[in-house]
């Protein structure tokens, strides 16, 4: 199977648009379960973009990287998060520091600001996909927004993963990803990090009885 | 030969960890000690070879260790050995007091070995991407160690460490990516486009805008792991909640590993942008860390948090010194990192003894230790004084070198500010130290006996620090100078 470079670039552009929409929707939802679903879709879009570029340029390491992305970000990580969610008594982000409507507005502002501020051509993007780099920057910021304004541990982790997706997209839009060893190393680290988060989420549930970070206020000064 | 050593350094602790996981008591201790012993011998041999050759290569250039990397390897090995030696006593006490469950014993040794493996991996790779992978691995594994007791505080500390560490290191990945983007344009998609050996040599032809952004992101990213203010908020929690031997590794070498990564980017930035840009940033963040850590040390109520804030202070000083540059300050920086690691290791282990025996971390509870716990109290008191930089502590010499080096390089104002902050920090340490040693003991405390072996382990690092303040052996001076010439870049 092969795709030509123009189609691949267009696919990357289209996936970027989808990734932005997912980011905004994640920022605007209260339901943690829905956020995990949206995150899985975002991961899948990222993987599709990577696979398209890899097949178009005939670069094996990007194809492998795309498959690894699919396996971890679209499947394994959402499954783990979903498992934690099923064990948790709280499924909804009830009192975030920034409500869903305000988050929606801020997320949209971030998207426009990123589009205005980042001109892909100025960084000499490798593919003719003008959406990709602004999207990447927007996702990095949206991820931080989500991680900083939520109280529930799981929502914070979802924010971090959106942030990670932004970084991965930066890699695809600036260069054709990273060399394979590094891609695999990063994917492995990510999976490991989520597993450790899982372990701690379970401990928080058993010891503190909740996943709310409001209980984490003992260490000061 | 080199290949074999590299494999031994990484595989021995990884395999040893797997073997130790399900074990308990003596058998877990033996497996862990054996695995660490093999890794230590291999790491020291690698370090020695690297120092002898100037630059050691293995696996076709995947692994490159220069004098700077070799120094980090040796330092990591020494601190890991000290932490391992102190672990059995610490763990047995935690099991007896109920803080560890029985199966946590094997897990502790397994995680400790994996933590050491990840720390030893940091200076091995030529590739900045793999360096990132190693640093991220240190965060993940040590977060498991920080929360091993499952107390609410430990879980809180581990959670914060994990989240902030991941965000921070994420920024470092972004910086690494930007560096790659800048070098791909010069080198094409070659596999060595992220190797620091290559990047330094082609630095002048890299895109300055990308390089500037890359350094800013790595400064924020690895700066989080170094504990630079304002990215430091996880550090006092994690370092105070971790088991004490792990605290020693965290403060003594984990911070330095991240600093090593930052220095690699700094050297590329200096090559591509000239010394002004990244050096100024390092001076600013170093000074800020020194200044912010101080008030938290003065009014600190928790013994291990006091030590943690002091680590922020010392990392700030070291970062400042790297920003100053110049042979004098850099020589001071290198020796300072080593001495700080030795003192902090001894201090955290002494603190661990005291905290276990007094059943409290509070400085208002741990008093009059000269009567109640003369050995651990004594080493803690002496360690605090040495850490403050009272002669003959080697810290006095290194701090002096960094300050004077700064003045020589034209940073007189920053150097003066740093000198005053260091003097105030000394007063804070002396204040806490005297109350700890001579303060009136709280009634009801029992006398504590620390065995002779443990006493030796606590005292020897301090003795080394004091001796190095008076006399530097020839081979050490040669090694320090080799590291200095790497740190100084081409112009140093």
Low-confidence stretches of chain A: none
Find the count of extended strands of chain A (DSSP E, 2+ residues). Answer: 0
Number of strands of chain B: 2
**What class do helices, strands and sheet pairing of chain A give?**
mainly alpha
Number of helices of chain A: 7
H-E order of chain A = HHHHHHH
What would the principal axes of the Cα set say about the shape of chain B?
A: globular
How confident is the prediction overall: mean pLDDT of chain B? 92
The largest pleated sheet of chain B is described as: 2 strands, antiparallel
What would you note in describing this structure?
- By secondary structure, chain A is mostly helical.
- Chain A has one domain.
- Chain A has helices spanning 5-28, 32-57, 60-87, 100-117, 132-149, 153-174, 180-208.
- The longest helix of chain A has 29 residues, at 180-208.
- The termini of chain A are far apart.
- The model of chain A has no long low-confidence stretch (mean pLDDT 84).
- In chain B, helix 9 (234-241) runs antiparallel to helix 10 (244-273), helix 10 (244-273) packs parallel to helix 12 (303-324) and helix 13 (327-358) packs across helix 19 (474-487).
- Chain B folds into three domains: 1-124, Four Helix Bundle (Hemerythrin (Met), subunit A) (Up-down Bundle); 150-273, no CATH class; 274-492, no CATH class.
- Chain B is built from 19 helices and two strands.
- In chain B, a hairpin with a 4-residue loop joins strand 1 (55-58) and strand 2 (63-66).
- Chain B is mainly α and 492 residues long.
- The interface between A and B is large, with 42 and 49 residues.
């Amino acid at each position: 199977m092969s795709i030509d470079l123009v189609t691949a670039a267009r696919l990357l552009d289209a996936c970027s648009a989808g990734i932005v929409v997912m980011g905004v929707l994640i920022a605007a939802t209260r339901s943690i379960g829905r956020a995990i679903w949206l995150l899985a879709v975002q991961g899948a879009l990222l993987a599709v973009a990577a696979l398209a570029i890899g097949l178009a340029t005939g670069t094996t390491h990007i194809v492998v990287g795309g498959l690894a992305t699919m396996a971890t970000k679209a499947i394994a990580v959402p499954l783990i998060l979903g498992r934690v969610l099923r064990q948790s008594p709280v499924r909804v982000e009830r009192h975030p520091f920034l409500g869903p409507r305000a988050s929606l507005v801020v997320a949209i502002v971030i998207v426009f600001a990123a589009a205005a501020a980042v001109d892909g051509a100025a960084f000499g993007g490798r593919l003719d996909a003008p959406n990709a780099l602004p999207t990447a920057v927007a996702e990095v910021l949206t991820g931080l927004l989500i991680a900083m304004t939520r109280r529930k541990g799981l929502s914070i982790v979802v924010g971090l993963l959106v942030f990670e997706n932004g970084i991965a997209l930066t890699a695809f839009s600036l260069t054709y990803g990273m060399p394979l060893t590094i891609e695999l190393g990063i994917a492995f680290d990510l999976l490991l990090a989520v597993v450790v988060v899982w372990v701690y989420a379970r401990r928080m549930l058993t010891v503190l009885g909740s996943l709310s970070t409001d209980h984490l206020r003992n260490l000061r000064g | 030969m080199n290949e074999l050593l590299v494999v031994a350094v990484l595989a021995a602790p990884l395999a040893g960890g797997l073997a130790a996981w399900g074990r308990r008591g003596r058998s877990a201790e033996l497996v862990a000690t054996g695995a660490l012993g093999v890794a230590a011998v291999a790491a020291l041999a690698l370090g020695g070879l690297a120092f002898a050759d100037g630059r050691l290569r293995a696996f076709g250039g995947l692994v490159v260790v220069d004098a700077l990397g070799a120094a980090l390897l040796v330092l990591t090995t020494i601190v890991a050995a000290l932490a391992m030696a102190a672990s059995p006593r610490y763990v047995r006490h935690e099991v007896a007091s109920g803080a560890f469950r029985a199966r946590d014993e094997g897990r502790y040794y397994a995680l400790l070995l994996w933590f050491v493996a990840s720390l030893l991996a940091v200076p091995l790779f030529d590739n900045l991407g793999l360096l990132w992978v190693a640093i991220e691995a240190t965060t993940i594994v040590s977060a498991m160690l920080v929360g091993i007791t499952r107390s609410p505080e430990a879980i809180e500390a581990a959670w914060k460490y994990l989240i902030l560490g991941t965000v921070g290191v994420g920024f470092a990945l972004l910086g690494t990516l930007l560096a790659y983007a800048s070098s791909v344009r010069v080198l094409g998609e070659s596999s060595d486009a992220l190797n620091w050996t290559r990047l330094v040599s082609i630095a002048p032809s890299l895109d300055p805008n990308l390089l500037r952004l890359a350094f800013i992101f790595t400064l924020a990213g690895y700066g989080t792991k170094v504990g630079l203010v304002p990215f430091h908020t996880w550090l006092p929690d994690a370092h105070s909640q971790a088991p004490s031997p792990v605290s020693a590794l965290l403060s003594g070498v984990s911070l330095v590993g991240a600093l090593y990564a930052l220095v690699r980017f700094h050297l590329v930035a200096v090559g591509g942008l000239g010394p002004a840009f990244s050096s100024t940033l390092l001076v600013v963040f170093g000074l800020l860390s020194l200044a912010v850590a101080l008030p938290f040390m003065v009014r600190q109520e928790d013994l291990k948090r006091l030590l943690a804030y002091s680590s922020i202070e010392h990392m700030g000083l070291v970062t400042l010194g790297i920003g100053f540059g110049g042979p004098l300050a850099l020589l001071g920086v290198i020796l300072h990192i080593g001495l700080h690691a030795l003192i902090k290791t001894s201090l955290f282990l002494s603190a661990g003894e005291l905290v276990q025996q007094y059943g409290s971390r509070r400085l208002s509870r741990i008093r009059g230790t000269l009567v109640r716990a003369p050995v651990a109290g004594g080493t803690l008191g002496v360690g605090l004084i040495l850490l403050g930089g009272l002669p003959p502590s080697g810290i006095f010499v290194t701090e002096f070198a960094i300050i004077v080096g700064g003045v020589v390089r034209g940073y007189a104002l920053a150097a003066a500010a740093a000198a005053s902050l260091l003097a105030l920090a000394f007063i804070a340490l002396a204040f806490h130290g005297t109350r700890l040693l001579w303060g009136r003991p709280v009634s009801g405390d029992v006398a504590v006996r620390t065995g002779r072996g443990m006493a030796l382990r606590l005292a020897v690092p301090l003795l080394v620090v004091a001796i190095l303040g008076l006399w530097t052996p020839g081979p050490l001076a040669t090694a320090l100078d080799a590291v200095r010439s790497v740190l100084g870049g081409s112009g140093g």
